[in-house]
Amino acid sequence: MKSLFIFIGIIIFFSLSVYIWNLIQRKKGVTEANPDKYVRPDGCCGAHEVCEHTADELNTKPEYFDDEELDRFERKLSHEYTDEEAEEFREVFYTLYDEEKSLWLKSLRMRHISLPQQVKKEMVDVMKSLHKDLQTA
């Protein structure tokens, strides 16, 4: 019975510790979201696994793929997109030829347009499979 009280005491101690730590961190942290804090460096699209980013891309002009309407999302963060906005990206991505998809991602990066969180993993997976297909061909 004594060990049960010790065990419960340890659980209560850790729970209080986590609660107090959380309160302290909240008081130290920023109370409102600061979008400037989360801006990615220029030239970063967030698709690091398939990104072929080079320094000379910053000096060239982006190529458009009939997607000028996406320019309204410039500097918008990945988690801020609605499902309808993410669907716009998905539509453009799947209407492109396989050879154009990596160029389109570079174009978005040069235009400072982040991929929506809702479609990022899906597009990265497609790009990985395209790279594998190219390597085996």
The overall strand count is 0
Give start-end ranges of low-pLDDT stretches.
none
Shape estimate = elongated
Q: Report the oligomer.
A: single chain
Overall SS class: mainly alpha
Strand content is under 5%
What's the SSE pattern? HHHH
Integer-rounded radius of gyration? 22 Å
Mean pLDDT equals 79
Q: What is the first-to-last residue Cα distance?
A: 69 Å
Q: What is the percent of helical residues? A: 40-55%
Count of helical segments? Answer: 4
Could you describe the largest sheet, including whether it forms a barrel?
A: none
Task: Map the helices and strands.
Elements: H1 2-28, H2 83-95, H3 98-110, H4 117-136
Helix pairs in contact: 2-4
Which properties best describe this structure?
elongated; single chain; 4 helices; mainly alpha
Q: Summarize this, please?
A:
With 137 residues, the protein is mostly helical. The protein has helices spanning 2-28, 83-95, 98-110, 117-136.
Describe this structure in words.
This protein has 137 residues and is an all-alpha fold. It has helices at 2-28, 83-95, 98-110, 117-136. It is elongated.
